Structures are given as C-alpha cells and as structure tokens.
Amino acid sequence: MKKLYIKTFGCQMNENDAERVYLLLKDNFKPVDNPEEADLILINTCSVREKPEHKLYSEIGRYKELKLRRPEIIIGAMGCVAQQEGERLFERFPYLDLVLGTQGFYRIREALEELIKTGKPVAYTELKEDFKIPLVLPEDNSKKMKPKRVKAYISIMQGCDNFCTYCIVPYVRGREISRPPEEILKEAEELVKKEGVKEITLLGQNVNSYGLKESGYPDFADLLVMLFQIEGLFRIRFTTSHPKDLSEKLMRVIAENPKVCKHIHLPLQAGSNKILKRMNRKYTKEEYLEKVEKLRSLCPEIAITSDIIVGFPGESEEDFLETLDMLEKVRFHEVFSFKYSDRPFTSARKFEDKVSEEIKEARLKKVHEVQARITEEIYGSYVGKEVEVLVEGKSERDPQKLTGRTTTNVVVNFTAPRTGLEGALVKVLITEAGKHSLKGEYKKTLVF
What we know:
This protein is of the alpha/beta class and 448 residues long. 34% of the residues lie in helices and 23% in strands.
C-alpha cells in the first residue's frame, strides 16, 4: 500500500478536510508522519491571513530537493490558497503535481488518475454554487487495533454569503451551502458507533445560517436538537457563530440542552461602530452587547470567546480604545487577535487609509495585555470548584497527568488514580489556574 503525508495549516475546517482526504484514499494509501516516506504529499492550505499563506510557500519549497531525489513522488497543494492561486502555483513551483481547491479536493482520486494517465499537472479549482458536499463516512475502528477517537469534526456547511470587507472566505470557499441534515446525522452516528467519538464539533463559516437557504431544512437550533438524540454522544460544540444571526432560539437550546457545550465563539472583530460598518459586519457594538447580555441571562455559565482585528484601515486611536472597552465589558474567556493584512479579492485591500505596522504591533500587544489579565481573572475563579471534564488522554506536557476540557472549553490537566479514562466524563477539583489552562485532581467518574 502506498503512503500519504498531509501537512495542514489553518482552521478546524482544514483539519476536517484533511481527515476526509485520508478517508477518500484509505483503500490505496496509509497515512505516515514523515514526508520522506510518502508517495503522496499534500499541503493543506489557509489564506485567511497572510502568515499561513507564507507558510504554505515555505512548506512547498521544502520538497523541491525531495522531488529531485524521487521524481516519482506526487506533491500537491489543496485548500484555500490552492483555490486562490490556482494554476499560478505551477508557475511558481514547477515540481508541483496537483492543485485542488476547496471543492476540488473531493475529486482527489480522479485527479490522481488524470495525473498518472496524462503525466501533466492537474488543477481542480472550480467553485459551483450547486456543489453538494459528498458524504464521507468514517472507518469502522471496532474491527481494527486502532485507538478510538474522543473528539471529531463534522462540516455542516461550506462557504459564506456575508462578504466582510477584510475576508477572503467567500472567494475561496464559495457561497453558503448547507449539507442535508440526514447526512450530518448519519455521519455523527457513524462516528459515535464506529470510532467511539464522545464529542462532535460542528463546523461552518457561519453555523447560525445553516439551512436558511435550503427548502425543508431545519435551522441550526433544530439541528442541534436532532443531534442531541444520538445515544453515546456526550457533547456537541460548534464554530463559528456570526453575531448578526445569533437568535434567542439558539441561545435557549444552548442553555437548556445538557449535551450542547456552554461555550460560544462569537467574533467581535472591532469595538467601534465606524470600523464595524466599514468591515460590513452588519451589527453595532450595542447590538453585540445586547446579545451577550441575553445569552448570559439565559445561560449564566456560558463562556464566550472572540476574534479581534487591530489596525483595520481607518482605525483611529479612539476606535481602538473602543475595542479595549469592549474587552472589559464583555470579559471574554479567550480572544484570538490579529493584525489586519490585505487579502486578495477583498474590498478592504483597496482602502487607502492603512494603519502602519508599528501602530498595529503596538495595538496588538495592548490587546494581548488586557485580555491576558481578564483571562487570568476568569481562570482564577475556577479554583476550588469541581468541574465536568471530558477526558481526551494523557497530557502532552506531563504524561503522568490526564487532560481534557470543561464544557466551557477550558483545558484541564489533572492527576487521576488510574489510566483508561479516555472518553469518560469525570469530575475534577480545580486546584490551580495557569495562563492558558487549569490544573486539578480527579474526584469521580460520571459517565463512561
């Protein structure tokens, strides 16, 4: 059997895409961790920001010498940068064999056949509005000597219709397409049954708009209720939620359904209404705060995380101070913050009033400082409390401890009297708070 190596950059959706490629090729390829051993190398790419795109070019460059030594090896790029650049990647990297876009990677077997038949590089980068995400079911690990997975991802939709002025996603992932609910349920059931999965994260650029364009589909809140019925599934997470589409109905499902985790990633991006309007975010900071207040009134234990962009074109010091003020008012558990960078195809790249790199760097540093303090205070509030943790396995930092996450998505590393607790829901007493995780002591097993 031939060997496959995939290097993935970017988001959870990219990780899920890589998993689908493994499954699509499972009859002919087995995964390996070393590209030197591989017959097929795929670089799975992200273009949401400039840095991951540069990582792709660096990664492809690493394989030039390998291709010279082993001309028979097949090297391909897939994902968002592949979609963005298309056949131009062949000009930049003549030793590249495949370019598979965000819909095209599902045709990986066909692409390999065409490459072998013609001996010429193959690019599949067409984006179709009527594209249907193929149903790719997991392997049956119950018949193999493979460890079971505790967590898995399911893409419930692809693409985005929002066209935020800084965002490349609609151009590389296409317009919003929701998967049929019966396929999502089937995939979830198979993951639980065949691989022993206990927690599923539903993925989409804007999960809140799931099913709104398709006739007869449930909305996202109803989809969560349907998934709740799966026996053996302990937890359901989802990302990402657009604030403008966060409904009270969804808030109530989060609050009332014990399997739905008490955590929501709700990107704010900026605290200034002027900048939010320029970003085309379609909400004001006041509307954002109203939704946060409603969410917390229904579900007081909810943890909210967010994204922040600093240095968007036209962002004044006053605008930036409004963003800092929003950090203080909302008190996010965590914030993922980035410096604005121009992306191809987007409207914002044409804006002329750019913010200097020095100012962007200073503002990013300030966001980090403010949020670090807030996170430290929130994490400190866990000390002395018992929390429910889904055990994922051994801690990477300390193999003598186990690790898992709370329903609020906080990492907990803890001591336990025995091993073999992977996949169990346990009670842990929190004894110490760190900057990015908690420490604790095992108390009892709740569900296995």
